[in-house]
Design a protein that fits this description.
Length: 91
C-alpha cells in the first residue's frame, strides 16, 4: 500500500485488487479513481461513451464494433448490417 501512496504523487496506476482492500486504503490519495468491479458491478464506476462519439465517426465505429462484436466469418453480412445500423444511431 505504501507503493501506491508513493505513486499517487507522481502519476497514474492501474491496480488489480481482487478483495477491494487496496481501493479502500489508497483511493483517497489519487486525484481521480475509476473502479471496475466484475464481481459486484453495482460498485463499478459508469462510463457513457456516446457524448465522445458525437462528431467523431472513427470513435463511434470503434465502439460500435466492440458492442456488436464485429468479426469476419460466417455471419459477416448480418454483423456488418447491425454495425452500420448502430453507427447511424450513434451519429
Amino acid at each position: 500500500m505504501n507503493i501506491l501512496r508513493d505513486w499517487s504523487q507522481w502519476g497514474s496506476a492501474l491496480v488489480m485488487d481482487i478483495k477491494g482492500e487496496l481501493y479502500a486504503h489508497t483511493a483517497r490519495y489519487f486525484d481521480q479513481v475509476y473502479r471496475l468491479d466484475l464481481e459486484n458491478p453495482c460498485y463499478s464506476d459508469l462510463w457513457n461513451p456516446l457524448p465522445a462519439c458525437l462528431g467523431n465517426g472513427e470513435l463511434a465505429h470503434s465502439i460500435a464494433s466492440i458492442v456488436v462484436g464485429y468479426e469476419t466469418g460466417e455471419h459477416e453480412g448480418q454483423r456488418r448490417h447491425a454495425l452500420l445500423d448502430l453507427r447511424r444511431k450513434l451519429l
